[in-house]
Structure formats: C-alpha cells, structure tokens
C-alpha cells in the first residue's frame, strides 16, 4: 500500500543536514520518495506501507542524529 506522510524534524539547521536526512531515508527499502524542506523543517516521504513503517523511518531519522517531532 502506498503511504505518504509529512513530519517535522528538529535539529535540521543547514543544507547538509537536509541532504543527510534525504540520503538516509532514500536508502530504506520501501521508501519511494523523500522531500526535505529546510525552511519549514519538514520531511515528506512516500513509501510502501507493507514494506516499511513510519516507526522505522523515524528511527532512521534519529539514527542520523535528528529528532522527528510529529506528524503534520
Ligand atoms: Mo550543517 Mo547539520 O554544518 O547536522 S550538517 S548543521
């Protein structure tokens, strides 16, 4: 099933942060697209929810050193 979710990320303060999160999330199986908006500190992901969960995506954001805040 195709899922789409937008969430805020705390600690993402420069373009390299945004790129690091984008690369990290694009490396997850089942993630189809990642769009990071630095100005609004939001990330939008499209993913196959039968392959990967938001829980796993949040865990990967944290593993990259950032804090996923909440779904928006
Ligand atoms: Mo920029 Mo982000 O120097 O952790 S990469 S603040």
Automatic annotation (TrEMBL):
<protein>
    <recommendedName>
        <fullName>Copper-exporting P-type ATPase</fullName>
    </recommendedName>
</protein>
<comment type="function">
    <text>Involved in copper transport.</text>
</comment>
<feature type="domain" description="HMA">
    <location>
        <begin position="3"/>
        <end position="69"/>
    </location>
</feature>
<comment type="similarity">
    <text>Belongs to the cation transport ATPase (P-type) (TC 3.A.3) family. Type IB subfamily.</text>
</comment>
């Amino acid at each position: 099933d195709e899922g789409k979710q937008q969430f805020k990320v705390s600690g993402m303060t420069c373009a390299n942060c945004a790129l690091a999160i984008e690369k990290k999330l694009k490396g997850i199986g089942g993630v189809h697209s990642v769009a990071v908006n630095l100005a609004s500190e939001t990330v939008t992901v499209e993913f196959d929810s039968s392959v990967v969960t938001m829980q796993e995506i949040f865990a990967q954001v944290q593993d990259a050193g950032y804090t996923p805040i909440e779904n928006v």
